[in-house]
Amino acid sequence: MAFLGLSGDALTFLGGVATGASKEIDKQLERQQEAIKEASSTAIRARLAGRKKYDENIEEMTKAIKPLLAQYNISNVAQLMNMPETQRNKIVSSLASIGGKDERGTFFKALKEFDGKTPLTSSQLISSLVPAYTESKIDYSGLIPNTAVDVLFGTKPSDQLERRITAGAGALRTKTPTIDLSPYEGELNLEGKIRAFSKDASDVTSTAKTFSNTLFQSMGGKTKLENGVYRDVGGQEGDRELANRYSLTLGNVYAKRVRTLQITKKLSVEEAEAQAKLDIQSYLNNSFTINNPASNRKIMLQFTKSDIKQGVNPNQGYGKVIKGDKKATTILGIDFLEKEIQSRDSNNEAITREVKNEYVSKLDKILRSQNIYSEPEIDKIIELFLARINKYLSGE
User: What pLDDT does 142 receive?
Assistant: First the structure.
């Protein structure tokens, strides 16, 4: 009896068709799997390469700004990184001798202006300094051809491709947010420019000596007659010592003037030296007339004498006037303030009244924060502090 009424020849024919269809489906599946393998490998390599490049950029930027973050506040580092590298290196080198992140920050415009408005963390700063990296979801549809099985059962080869890529590269990375750093673009303030981009005068000592000779002559010099007789040697020596002391003040002023003129007037260091000498000589000519030696001597004494009350020994330490549980750290803090002033003086900065008041204010803040000192005690400590730094004051 024939199967379902079909003859043997008919069954043989249908069996052959089924076998051929099965072989064709196998070929389609094999080609599809090869396509999935190739496409997934390409996508995985590209995604991992993109991630690696971004991670390397982050690592390089971290290494670049890590030393800066140790020396400056984050807002200052953001501003430094907005500058050309050669300019940035020059500034960092020039300001290296200044102790404290906040102290260095005073040379920048961005420090206070953007406090609280554009907050930054170090990781945000780093990610904002490298090219942004975004992984977008790929549309896998249409990349892999359907087989007859996919058509028959409604499966999607794109799902296989997506699963394979996810297994090889992991889930999509979220977009790394970046912050607009343009608010931190800017320049150093004038004091910072002077410190970073000007050169020291080469003849401060010799120029100060010239000033000293001029000052000595304004007090009569060696040949000054008083009531028809020459002054005694002691008087001459006293005037010479006074002229030398005041000339040190003028030497500091000269050094600062030379550096300032280079920035404000765009002069070379040689031009600035010549102009600074003319400026100070003009001041001497106007302030110390040769026919009024007594007045000249009085002016110099006023500028060189100590403003400290008599009886304060500048060699006295702070041990007898500092008290409380924080005595050791307080003394260490005051010593640090003295060393800062000494460093600024060594860098040919004029230690003016403004600078003096700045450090007195810092000391006053330290003492008052401890809530253990009376007003007379605070005054006494500040008095000793001023006595100890008096040798650095320019008298401006």
Answer: 59
Instruction: Quote the DSSP letter at residue 108.
Output: B
Distance CA 112, CA 123 (A): 21
Q: Which of 251, 269, 277, 248 is nearest to 194 (CA)?
A: 269
pLDDT tens-digit map of 301-334: 877 764 334 455 667 788 888 988 888 888 888 9
Q: Which residues are paired to 258 by β-bridges?
A: none
pLDDT in tens, 144-191: 666 555 555 555 666 766 777 677 766 777 777 788 888 888 788 888
Give Cβ neighbours of residue 391 (< 8 Å, ≥ 6 apart): 314
Can you tell me the distance from the alpha carbon of 302 to that of 316, in angstroms, rounded to the nearest whole number? 25
Q: Which residue has the higher pLDDT, 314 or 89?
A: 89
Can you tell me the distance from the alpha carbon of 370 to that of 322, in angstroms, rounded to the nearest whole number?
11
Asked if residues 201 and 273 have their Cβ atoms less than 8 Å apart, the reply is yes
Locate 81 and state its tokens: 């990184």
Report the 3 state secondary structure along 297-318.
Answer: HHHHHHHHCCCCCCCCCCCCCC
Distance of CA 252 to the CA centre of its chain: 27
Residue 131's closest CA among 176, 161, 185? 176
pLDDT tens-digit readout, 373-383: 887 788 889 88
Question: Which range has the top average pLDDT, 79-93, 163-177, 346-360, 364-378?
Answer: 79-93
Q: Distance between CA atoms of 355 and 350, rounded to whole angstroms?
A: 8
Residue given tokens 């010099």 in the structure block: 221
Q: Are 388 and 356 in contact (CB under 8 A)?
A: no
Task: Pick the closest to residue 68 from 89, 97, 87, 54 (CA basis).
Answer: 89
Nearest-angstrom CA–CA distance, 129 and 267: 36
- The Cα–Cα gap between 36 and 39 comes to 5
- Residue 29 CA: distances (Å) to CA of 19, 140, 147, 156, 214: 15, 18, 6, 12, 103
- The one-letter code for the residue type at 128 is S
Partners of 230 in the β-ladder: 225
With the CA atoms of 346, 350, 356 and 361 taken in that order, what torsion angle do they form, in degrees rounded to the nearest 10? -80
